[in-house]
Amino acid sequence: MSADGPEDDRSIEGRGVEGYWDLDQLVADLSAARARWRQAQQHHAEYGAEGFPSRANLAKIMQSLCGALFPLRLGPSFVRLHNEDAFVAETLQTVLSRLYGQIRLELIYALKDEPAAVVDREAARIIGGFAQSLPGLRELLDTDVDAAFLGDPAARSVDEVLICYPSMLAIIHHRLAHRLYELGAPLVARIISEIAHGKTGIDIHPGATIGQSFFIDHGTGVVIGETAIVGHRVRLYQGVTLGARSFPADEKGHLEKSLPRHPIIEDDVVIYAGATVLGRIIVGSRSVIGGNVWLTDSVPADSNVRQAKAHYEVTSRVEVSAPHRVHALLESTDGIGENI
Known about the structure:
UDP N-Acetylglucosamine Acyltransferase, domain 1; disordered C terminus; serine acetyltransferase, domain 1; globular; 3 domains; 11 helices; 48% helix; alpha/beta; five-stranded parallel sheet
C-alpha cells in the first residue's frame, strides 16, 4: 500500500506484474501436460491441429439454412414472393459451401490416416446427400408445424408457431443435424444440436430418430438421448426426459458407446411435464404418460400411466394465522370482506 492509499491497477501495471509468474516455466509445463494427455489418449494430434469445426460459423450456417427452408418467415426482411427463389438459390450456394468446409474439418481428423483426396471425396458425398435431403426435410418440418398448431389451443396460426415457438427452432436444428449424423458427420451434427440446446433449453441428441408430426409444448428442460426412437404424432411437454437407465462398461471399466439404451416411444403417445422415461423400454402406441411419472418398464399400447394420488391436506392460512380476518369477513354486510 502506498502512502496515498491502496495501489490501483495503473501503479501495478507501471511497475510490471510479470514478475509474479515464470512465463517460460508455465508454457513448458502446459506443453508437457498436453503431451501426456495426447500420449494417454493415443492421439498424435488433437482436433484443431488442422482446424476445427467452428460453433460460431455453424450457428451462422444454421441461421441461413433456416432462412432457406422458410424464406418468408425465417429469412431476411427483404424476401418477398417475387424474389424468394433467387434468395434461396443464393443462400444455398453460399451456405452449403461453408457447411462443406466445416464437414471437411471434421473428416481431416476422423480420416487422419487417409490421403486428402479421400477426405475431399467423403466430404463431397456428405454435403451432396445433405443437399438432396433438404426438400424432404422441409416437408417433414411442415408436419411438425401443423402438429404444434393443432396441438396447442394458444396457437393462433402456423406462422406464429414457426416464428415464436422455441420447440420449432429445436426441431429444425434436430432434423438437419440428424441427417448429417446419418451421413457421417457426427461432430458437426452434435455442435448443431448444442447450438439449439443453448438457445432453447431443449436437448435432443442428433442420433435420436424422430417421426413426423412431432410437437414439444413449451419445451424447456426436455432431454432426448442418442438412441431414442420416437414415432409419429408424439407430443412431449416441458421437463420430459427420454434417457438411459444404466451405462454398461467394458472389462477395463470404460463405458460402452452407442448401445441402444434409450426408450422407444411408439405412435400417438403423449408424455406430460416432468415425466422421466428411462432405459430401452417401449411405450406402446396411444399411451399417455402423466406428469412427474418415473417409468423404467415397458407399457402396452393404450396405457394410461400416472402417479399414485398424493395425500394432502388443505387448510386456510388466514384462519390459522389471522382468525380476526375471518371474523371480519363473516361480519361484512356484502360478503366481500371490505374490512379485511
